[in-house]
């Protein structure tokens, strides 16, 4: 046991190995769902709206209150001690208030639904940022693998160049160019790794993994599953799914419903309101001392009950009800207009975004073929260099061309994948890789 503890102390990485958090894209999204502060704040807003809905429903029921009064007194003149008490229990209920109670309940339900849609908006924004960060790491990891292949070739080229330079078959300048290219390729890998490390910091913050908890790595998806995501969906399906799902539209739709209930609640002021009340009470008064009078009034004798029915009929309210209704109707029209504008904006934005996805797919398809062609061309020039038929300048020019097109290919591939996954978010589809 002591040996095991000693090993863990000497090699802390081994102690942390069992705590490494490995997440795929779906796992990152789920982790953020449970830990991201913005989402947790939104969920608290949902809880608040649920409480407000419950409170609105409780207005259908009676209110009950109790009163207790107890007094003690002493009279120096009569040297008597007095006690009196009053006790009551009262209840009241609104029987009819122009249907405002029922409409308020329904409006509170719509407001609770709207709050959930607003949280879904926040959730989608966080999802998009997580997808962007996750794919950036994947892109740079894949780019490193390609660059390592080039680095291995550059290492061989430097060794061959050294042998040729020592044999007097190439100029020193060519040999220096090969060395410089090898160093450049090494630095490119190091810089790409730095970019990965920085993106990991960003992703940790998005899904809210504390720095002092867990080592964290993402799971690279299977290439075949990744290839399945490299497809462009049908535009009409995308548009219809977006219109049915997007919380931005749902929030506007709920705003219209809320405004409709505001009008109904305002119109409730035209109607009489009816309420009922009931109560029971008792009391007593007693004195003790030289002027003792005993129990002058007992609890039973002081018992009293009451029942009441109140009707309030609005006759003239200085036009306040009518004007309130008109204002609420104007606000309703504004809410409907905002919904129409939002629907038009969404249709335009989704169509534009879809076309961008198609363009990204075309760029990706073209750059994939170019990357394969330039790699084969670079390999051919490398063989020519080994045979001594071209100079280092010719070789390095082709290597530079290949690396440029490789970077372009990586950018296009993951840009398309990012836009495709964002399209999944906009249409309410499961986001997986």
Any overview of this molecule?
The protein has helices at 2-10, 12-17, 25-35, 37-58, 100-166, 172-207, 223-228, 235-245, 247-267, 320-387, 392-426, and strands at residues 21-23, 63-75, 80-97, 216-218, 273-289, 294-297, 304-312. Helix 3 (25-35) crosses helix 5 and helix 5 runs antiparallel to helix 6 (172-207). The protein has 2 domains: 32-61 and 98-271 and 318-426, Outer membrane efflux proteins (OEP) (Up-down Bundle), CATH 1.20.1600; 66-95 and 274-313, no CATH class. Helices cover 67% and strands 15% of the residues. It has 433 residues and is α+β, with helices and mostly antiparallel strands. It has 11 helices and 7 strands. Strand 5 and strand 6 (294-297) form a beta hairpin.
The secondary-structure class comes to alpha+beta
Helix content: 55-70%
Cα gyration radius (Å): 39 Å
CATH topology assignment of the largest domain? Outer membrane efflux proteins (OEP)
What is the correct CATH architecture of the largest domain?
Up-down Bundle
The coarse silhouette is elongated
CATH superfamily of the largest domain, by name, is Outer membrane efflux proteins (OEP)
How would you spell out the order of helices and strands?
A: HHEHHEEHHEHHHEEEHH
First-last Cα distance: 43 Å
CATH C-level of the largest domain: Mainly Alpha
Strand content bin: 15-25%
Number of strands: 7
Mean pLDDT: 87
Which key features would you list for this structure?
alpha+beta; 433 residues; elongated; 11 helices; 5-stranded antiparallel beta sheet; Outer membrane efflux proteins (OEP); disordered N terminus; two-stranded parallel sheet
